[in-house]
Design brief:
Helices cover about 50% and strands about 25% of the residues. The chain has about 180 residues and is of the alpha+beta class. Strand 4 and strand 5 form a beta hairpin.
């Protein structure tokens, strides 16, 4: 039995999706602007190539999800079609901050673990503290992960609204092939 995954399933289960349409990028931009004007709970910035949509809230939480829609023109054989790529996630500044923390703590872990191991190999008593410091770095990585999971759970309701926006605003333009 062969099961097919539809675009709507991809939108529900993954933070990325891609659909094809016969609309030109300018037409899609115009339709997306009209759709956004009729929605009271969403705000966004839309241009011909990229659109960023967020849920309006009374407060501005640190972990605020957004939907980014990128419009690209692809040529297949002699036919030209428009691809709409969507991605759900935090703002780029939040994502960059968490990646910076993971990078910082992993480099710290490697440095401290290497210091401890080299000290062990050369039988030096100077670097026994480095093993404990490497475990502190692992703990900091775990705390960073837990903070990201807490942020994701706080933004779950907004994420569902963004998924609904993606389904309502883009799925009706999908070209079946």
């Amino acid at each position: 039995m062969k099961t097919e995954e539809t675009t709507i399933d991809k939108i529900r289960s993954r933070p990325r999706f891609k659909i094809y349409t016969d609309l030109k990028p300018a037409e899609y931009e115009q339709m997306l602007n009209e759709y956004l004007k009729n929605q009271q709970e969403f705000s966004g910035n839309i241009n011909r190539e990229i659109a960023t949509i967020q849920v309006k809230t009374k407060d501005e939480p640190f972990w605020k999800p957004s939907l980014t829609l990128r419009t690209e023109t692809e040529k297949e054989n002699a036919e030209q079609r428009t691809a709409i790529r969507g991605i759900f996630g935090p703002s780029s500044s939040v994502w960059t901050f968490f990646m910076f923390l993971y990078f910082l703590f992993s480099i710290g872990w490697m440095v401290f673990f290497t210091l401890w191991f080299v000290g062990l190999q050369i039988r030096s008593e100077d670097f026994h503290w480095a093993l404990a410091a490497s475990f502190v770095m692992l703990g900091c990585m775990l705390l960073t992960y837990l903070a990201s999971r807490i942020g994701q759970s706080k933004a779950k309701e907004e994420m569902e609204k963004l998924r609904h926006f993606a389904i309502e605003s883009t799925l009706k333009f999908e070209k079946n092939h």
